[in-house]
Fold this sequence. Notes:
Blueprint: H1 14-26, E1 33-38, E2 48-55, E3 63-68, H2 83-96, E4 104-108, E5 118-122, H3 141-144, H4 147-167, H5 184-200, H6 207-218, E6 227-230, E7 239-242, E8 245-249, E9 256-259, H7 260-280, H8 292-303, H9 310-334, H10 351-359
Antiparallel strand pairs: 1-2, 2-3, 3-5, 4-5, 6-9, 7-8
Helix pairs in contact: 4-8, 5-9, 6-9, 6-10, 7-9, 9-10
Amino acid sequence: MATAPRPRTSTREPEELGRRLGAWLDGRLPGAKITNISVPGSNGMSSETLLFDIEHPDTPLSACALRLAADPAAYTVFPTYDMPRQHRVMSLVAEHTDLPVPRVQWLEEDAGPLGASFFVMARAEGRVPPDVMPYTYEGNWLHAATDAERGALQEASISLLARLHDQFPAKEAEFLLPEGEGSPLRRHVDAQRAYYTWVVGGLAPSPLIERAFARLEELWPADEGPAVLNWGDARIGNVVYDGFTPVAVLDWEMAAYAPREVDLGWTVYLHRFFQDLTVSFGQPGLPDFLRREDLERRYAELTGHMPRDMEFHTLYAALRHAIVMLRIAYRQAHFGEVEVPADPDGLILHHASLAAMVQGTYW
Length: 363
């Protein structure tokens, strides 16, 4: 995926969205004009983002971003998109922590104006480590940075996670707990199993994903640890940087109430995904950047909490990512961009690393 043409993510046209958004905004700021409409080019495969400016003397925001629930006609990545939930999470994070979360403004739950619910937030100016082509590839700004600059970005980024987990009152995140029985971690994994069942639908299940779920049970932590607010999609590709300093933490649709290591495992694994992919295409990538041992050590120094059971949590992250990748591959097939192979495991781009984690040979 990272080296192929960008998969289709929507059937919507930005200009038409901008026109309809302008009509909606006129009911809140009569006479307001929307200009400079654009779509981010490198990251994001689920909810849609539209960037634009507002021209009006009384606007609370001028440089804006629209977060719009996924287009139902675009073979969505997730079964539901709860925009009020995202809006609430971002508002609470801004209230309870010092993380640079974009200021959220209008929330529209009615699907009528744009075809789905949405909210508008402030737009941060800066740069984002790209997914396509990945920031581990030669030729992008992060790869071209010095070791010291990447070190500064790594330090600032792991600090975001540590501060979120330490500063946010855990009780305030309990509304994110999925329905069901058991601990927060058990409910989180059960929700992922339900999501996988939805992704497969009437299609053949993935033997590798089934083995990964079984292996999780074998590695289940004896002490899961306390649950905290998880960012959910905790990775540098969801941060806007001014130079190498974070100025906006984005993409809270996967926010959860779960052990700290669920977030940390995702951060560790998602970098490994891009690094492994880069190496497989003959480039060295960034082998000394965002290393698991460095992130675990620094997180412990910042929080006093030593990460534990990380083989479980990195496997869990790779498993979750495999389910998402399977869904995205099915969406590509839906739009005629790829053909579905006889073996569904072939649709999982990182099947080799996931298999190695299941076997206990990856790390």
